[in-house]
């Protein structure tokens, strides 16, 4: 099994004909994703890389079952595109776009909560379950297996997924929460789904400095029946300096590496100091 999407999920791409949309459409198709429709205003009725095009999300939903949408939309237009997907009733919406204004992110996230939709992102690498990839994750790293992964950092996730695959340990689902100030989903949201998934036997949490998402996760980890391994980025980051992500900044002494590690250890999570240690610890836990 997997969380949120699986090999049977039908996927829509908004912004499918752009450079990034086209490239990642091909990668998603190669992964096995069922991309059944694309939205490209002004090109409705056409076909792009074998995928039928529509003028709007509503039109696409009238002609296809749509389980999830991926947005490759410029930041200035992303709010309207995301709201259109939410109002059309799509329940999983992955927003790859970065640099979306914070006020737009707040509007998107609040509307999604009212409509019961799950937002992955913004500013995310997306997510993948076996044979269904939504976003920009590298195909080569993944394999099916018993480990769920939820992360704030993309490249570290790829490294950790690759190290797990190299030792023969696959993944149920891998989810990127995104690096912005207003994420659509939290660690706790995904941990709850992994806890309920019978095929996920262990969970990896990839966090970073800034905010209190990891501390909130630690409180939930205390209640979990499944083991959790955590790796945190930003150990050497100076206070007050943003390290790549808008949310990765220590402010007024809060969101420090040390504080997060203490909270996670107290909750019973195993801590990996280096990314390669995650696979070693998972091997021990699943032995």
TrEMBL record:
CoA-binding domain ranges (all copies): 4-100
Function: Succinyl-CoA synthetase functions in the citric acid cycle (TCA), coupling the hydrolysis of succinyl-CoA to the synthesis of either ATP or GTP and thus represents the only step of substrate-level phosphorylation in the TCA. The alpha subunit of the enzyme binds the substrates coenzyme A and phosphate, while succinate binding and nucleotide specificity is provided by the beta subunit.
Stored SMART domains: CoA_binding (SM00881)
UniProt: substrate binding residues: 158
Family: Belongs to the succinate/malate CoA ligase alpha subunit family.
Residues at which CoA binds: 17-20, 43, 96-98
UniProt GO MF annotations: nucleotide binding; succinate-CoA ligase (ADP-forming) activity; succinate-CoA ligase (GDP-forming) activity
Any one GO biological process: tricarboxylic acid cycle
Active-site annotation: 245 (tele-phosphohistidine intermediate)
Pathway: Carbohydrate metabolism; tricarboxylic acid cycle; succinate from succinyl-CoA (ligase route): step 1/1
Species in which this protein is naturally found: Heliophilum fasciatum
Protein name: Succinate--CoA ligase [ADP-forming] subunit alpha
Superkingdom field: Bacteria
Keyword check for Ligase: yes
Keyword terms: Ligase, Nucleotide-binding, Tricarboxylic acid cycle
InterPro entries referenced in this protein's UniProt entry, alphabetically: Cit_synth/succinyl-CoA_lig_AS, CoA-bd, CoA_lig_alpha, NAD(P)-bd_dom_sf, SUCC_ACL_C, Succinyl-CoA_synth-like
GO terms under cellular component: succinate-CoA ligase complex (ADP-forming)
Reaction catalysis annotation: succinate + ATP + CoA = succinyl-CoA + ADP + phosphate; GTP + succinate + CoA = succinyl-CoA + GDP + phosphate
Binding partners and assembly: Heterotetramer of two alpha and two beta subunits.
């Amino acid at each position: 099994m997997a969380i949120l999407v699986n090999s049977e999920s039908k996927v829509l791409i908004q912004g499918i004909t752009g450079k990034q949309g086209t490239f990642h459409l091909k990668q998603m198709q190669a992964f096995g994703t069922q991309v059944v429709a694309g939205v490209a205003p002004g090109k409705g009725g056409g076909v792009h890389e074998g995928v039928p095009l529509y003028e709007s999300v509503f039109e696409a939903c009238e002609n296809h079952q749509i389980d999830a949408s991926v947005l490759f939309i410029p930041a200035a237009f992303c709010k309207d595109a995301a709201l259109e997907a939410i109002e059309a009733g799509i329940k999983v919406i992955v927003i790859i776009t970065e640099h979306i204004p914070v006020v737009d992110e707040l509007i998107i996230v609040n509307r999604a909560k009212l409509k019961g939709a799950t937002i992955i992102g913004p500013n995310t690498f997306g997510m993948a379950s076996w044979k269904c990839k939504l976003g920009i994750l590298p195909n080569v790293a993944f394999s099916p297996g018993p480990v769920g992964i939820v992360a704030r950092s993309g490249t570290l996730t790829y490294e950790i997924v690759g190290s797990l695959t190299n030792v023969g340990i696959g993944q149920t689902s891998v989810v990127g929460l995104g690096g912005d100030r207003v994420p659509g989903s939290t660690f706790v949201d995904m941990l709850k789904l992994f806890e309920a998934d019978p095929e996920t036997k262990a969970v990896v949490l990839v966090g970073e400095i800034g905010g209190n998402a990891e501390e909130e996760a630690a409180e939930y980890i205390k209640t979990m029946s499944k083991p959790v391994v955590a790796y945190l980025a930003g150990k050497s980051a100076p206070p007050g300096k943003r390290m790549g992500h808008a949310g990765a900044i220590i402010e007024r002494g809060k969101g420090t590496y040390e504080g997060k590690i203490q909270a996670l250890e107290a909750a019973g999570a195993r801590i990996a100091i280096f990314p390669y240690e995650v696979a070693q610890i998972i091997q021990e836990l699943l032995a």
